[in-house]
Amino acid sequence: xxxxxxxxxxxxxxxxxxxxxxxxxxxxxxxxxxxxxxxxxxxxxxxxxxxxxxxxxxxxxxxxxxxx
Length: 68
What we know:
alpha+beta
């Protein structure tokens, strides 16, 4: 079985941090350049100011084909 308590602690800490970023009163800037996904997007998007370039985008997910 997995380490349930460690997982709970990780996600509690992560969600508290994202909440703090989204409600922080001082302005802060997230600069997004290139593929933005996962934790990088998770801590950048709730921020007050976001700067993106023409290279910024979500990851490309390859389709999975099932042959039966």
